[in-house]
Amino acid sequence: MGCDVSSAFELDVALSSGVNPENIGCVGPYKSTRLLTMCVKNNIAFVAVESIEELLELAALRKEHQSDTAILLRLNPDIDISGGSMKMGGAASQFGIAESEFEGVLSLARERQIHIHGVHVYATTRVLDPDSFLANFSSLCEYLAALPERFRLKLEWLNVGGGFGIPYYKGEQSLCLEAIQEELLNLQHALVKRTGVRRLFFESGRFIVGEAGKAVVQVKSIKQSMNKTYAICDGGYNLFHGATAFANLMRKPYFISKVDPENLNILSELPLPERDVNGEVYTLVGPLCTPSDIIADKYVSEPLNAGDYLVIHQVGAYAITSSPGLFIGHGFPAEYMATGTDIVQIGKQDSIEEMKRRYVIEAKRNEPQPSTYSQLEAV
């Protein structure tokens, strides 16, 4: 098991947590000089390069620090991949090097005597159906196996991306590893045999940690507006951006459970809710001054009241770290970790004083400050 990192902070966390540098890869459309320097100085496994400029910078740093960090080129493959929630290749993108430009990048690398160790591809994400996953990976293996002859490229390393999906909406099931394990291993072994690669990487994405996180919000009021009933909650877009973003994009709510406050200490055992067919219809919203702060539209539930607690499932990935917790000054919430039967607080809720210290520029008290309102009145 290893780690993907995309920032200097993530790399520092991985290293300080004891992850072997040989099991760390660096990906992402932009990598700062600081991050690339940390990568080569710590001899991490590989950096997946996404542009000519990044290739030249990494090669220079690698030479300067006499690093063994492998250079992979992220290829944006022109292949037909289906069954995922989002296609990540074969179209214009900030990710990777377009297939039509790949030969030119390889030619430049040869001209500059830059050794390319392998290729990184990430064709799709969140595949739930085992047959679709295997069909996609089989197509990808055929594509990758043809690269050495097609581009005169010796493949020593391959990062084949991920696509392992978890369910977000009612009616979905998590990708069953038992259903794909045998055929996936067969395809993997065949790919290694055909290409001669020494190291093959998969990216787990949210598959491991996504199901490990739950967000708890409290209903603060119920509001009727024309023909809609709103349940206004104390957290939303600012706490778990993924749920609200997909609620708006897909017009489907995440898995959400109403929970008894007495059971908040056993959230780790709370199963995903079954599909509701009867009940009241609500639009669940957060506290922010934006119409996009929608947790769930057309959420069917037993009657909700102020004071009720709701649990949003599957937010272990892309939750707090991808959310605008400081929007309108609400701050980030407290975080807790379930360890067996115990609940341990691992992060404090932001206080007003803490947020002021970090983000408010204090005016000198003895100096008169211009009034915005008086300026407007003067105009």
Count helical runs. 10
Strand content: 15-25%
Average the pLDDT over all residues and give the rounded result. Answer: 87
H/E element sequence: EHEHEHEEEHEEHHEHEEEHEEEEEEHH
CATH class of the largest domain: Alpha Beta
Q: How would you describe the shape?
A: globular
Set down the secondary structure blueprint.
Blueprint: E1 3-5, H1 8-16, E2 24-26, H2 33-41, E3 46-49, H3 52-64, E4 70-76, E5 86-87, E6 97-98, H4 99-111, E7 118-120, E8 124-125, H5 130-145, H6 147-151, E9 157-159, H7 177-195, E10 199-201, E11 215-225, E12 228-233, H8 241-250, E13 256-259, E14 280-285, E15 294-301, E16 309-312, E17 335-339, E18 342-347, H9 352-359, H10 372-378
Parallel strand pairs: 1-2, 2-3, 3-4, 4-6, 4-7, 7-9, 9-10, 12-14
Antiparallel strand pairs: 5-8, 11-12, 11-16, 13-16, 14-15, 17-18
Helix pairs in contact: 2-3, 5-7
Domain Orn/DAP/Arg decarboxylase 2 N-terminal: 2-210
GO molecular function, one term: diaminopimelate decarboxylase activity
InterPro entries: Ala_racemase/Decarboxylase_C, De-COase2_C, De-COase2_N, PLP-binding_barrel
Textual characterization of the structure:
This protein is an alpha/beta fold. The protein folds into 2 domains: 3-201, TIM Barrel (Alpha-Beta Barrel), CATH 3.20.20; 211-350, Lyase, Ornithine Decarboxylase, Chain A, domain 1. It contains 10 helices and 18 strands. Strands 1, 2, 3, 4, 6, 7, 9 and 10 form an 8-stranded parallel sheet that branches. The protein has a 6-stranded mixed sheet with strand order 13-16-11-12-14-15. Helix 7 (177-195) links the parallel strand 9 (157-159) and strand 10. Helix 2 crosses helix 3. The model is unreliable at 83-88 (pLDDT under 50).
